[in-house]
Give the backbone structure.
Amino acid sequence: LARDLEPLMWAVLARDSVAERLATLLAASAGWWEAHRHYAMPYIRYRFQQARDGHPQDGASDMVPVYAGLIAQAQERGELDPRQAPARLAHYLHYLYLGALMAWLGDADLPLGDELARVVEFFMRGAAPTPRP
């Protein structure tokens, strides 16, 4: 991750909106998981074990801070609702991500890229700024 994240972030930050940035990031993730499917179940087990033991922050993905940074920028630009802390929204996004991985593992015919695109769409609807009356 450390080796691959920096060049990927250049591509991510070249996108205009947070939805495009997240889509770029998760599309790259889909490509990695498709090439390394055998790591997915142990990874998911580890992440949920950390949450079960009451230490979700200790076992948080290295991507959560990346998500939080993208979310904070989007909140400043008015793309996302600023009433939630970026770190909290980043954790919500990460659990949506884990759900997509689990769905993909459960159905070999399910394209992971499509599932992760749905994650971005669902997250964007839930974190969108609420219109003022």
